[in-house]
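Look over what follows to help learners.
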Amino acid sequence: MSQAREKTIGVLVMSYGTPESLEGVEAYYTHIRRGHPPTAEQLEDLTSRYRSIVGGVFPLRENTNAQVEALQQKLNEIAGDGAYKCYQGLKHASPYIEDGVEAMAADGIKEAVGIVLTPQYSVMSVGGYMKRAQDEAAKHGISFKSVQEYHLHPELIQALSTRVVEGLNRFGEARADTLVLFSAHSLPAKVLEMNDPYADQLLATSGAVAKDAGVENWQFTWQSAGQTGQPWLGPDILETLGRLSDEGIKNVLVTPVGFVSDHLEVLFDIDIEARKFAQERGIRLERIRMLNDDSQYMAALADSVIGLTNGRAN
């Protein structure tokens, strides 16, 4: 990695991470479980999900790499070459968050900004990423700021609303009778006791996207809850689809506002599991295109980073 110029600001782009191959699933799952290896049944379940969507090719890793590269290009375009330098830091895979900060230190970075590829803040998600990054930055004498949220950034809302309109148009004459179902990754229900803003911010994003897209018929649901033996935020998308079926709904456009790229929770949990569940109940289920490295999404990220380093409140 080339040396950063003296006044270059480092940008640590963080996300959940994914294994690079089927052979890496066990180590990845073990890290998620804080060092406790999964049972053979748990490992087979996760591995089979990856097989079913990608056949051994892992799109999340490729998408995350592309997002970091696209953000670097957008920052260069807005602020000029060398003003910012992006580094990648993953929660559960290499390069880990600490690796990204170490790479900054090796390049002589003295000032850095962290941003997570999740628009809505939760102490359990974005907050956890930022704490790890902040702690590592302190070890290296790097001044570190965090973009806490960007869930209502106009560029983000417009990028999502454009996709909602596109998705609705796929229903043709049934467009007017199609329900837009916004979704996001569930968290343990105990997060509600912390006055955590996650749920409220997701509803705010959903409402803003619906308004921009001219949609009145919409609802919100949760998905992809963990199997931890404790209550998670609900209702789950399958429960919601079951209720919608009972209400006679025949067309649903899933809009996962809590996710920004094609990965397991989208390609399996929605495209395979939820679609099959819906079809069995006479519901046509479609999904919006994911943001991935969309230019407007990159503009939202870049503006959030630049705004923080220029002293704008986040």
